[in-house]
């Protein structure tokens, strides 16, 4: 199960990277079009769609690498028992928020599909297509938070660099 989850998180990260490349491609296409006097409809919208998909799909992998911002001011000044209780509470609260985000993201994409909702721009993209990236990313993120909560309940030490006291690359 551990390998499967790690593969899912890794696949989502690779998909996020591909969407970042898509963002770059749309921006380059737009800039090139302005320089060479041609216009491709929807490049700004597609750049935004790719950026949103990249952000949501990268959430789980970023969490598992310990690169989310983590405020440990209180955790560093309490005993091990209180720290464990606070860790459980924070994981449970985070999971609740992530499940709600996943639920409403899935619902939004499904409703956009049902109502044939299209973008306001000249490209008239069916909105369920870009919303699927957000929904998938939020579901995978909720799974990653549930994974961390189960590990914390079992008393396992999380393998996050931020938890282990090592400075992460973003600090």
How big is the Rg? 19 Å
Tally of helical runs: 5
Give the low-confidence spans: none
Average pLDDT confidence is 88
Instruction: Note the main sheet.
Output: none
Task: State the domain count.
Answer: 1
N-to-C order of helices and strands: HHHHH
Q: Termini distance? A: 31 Å
What's the number of extended β-strand segments? Answer: 0
Describe this structure in words.
This protein has helices spanning 2-36, 43-57, 59-64, 80-114, 128-153. It is mostly helical. The protein has one domain. Helix 1 runs antiparallel to helix 2. It has five helices and no strands. The protein is 68% helix and 0% strand. The chain is elongated. It starts with a helix and ends in an 18-residue tail after the last helix.
Task: Break the fold down into its secondary structure elements and pairings.
Elements: H1 2-36, H2 43-57, H3 59-64, H4 80-114, H5 128-153
Helix pairs in contact: 1-2, 2-5, 4-5
Short description:
With 171 residues, this protein is mostly helical. It has one domain. Helix content is 68%, strand content 0%.
Distinctive features:
single chain; about 170 residues; mainly alpha
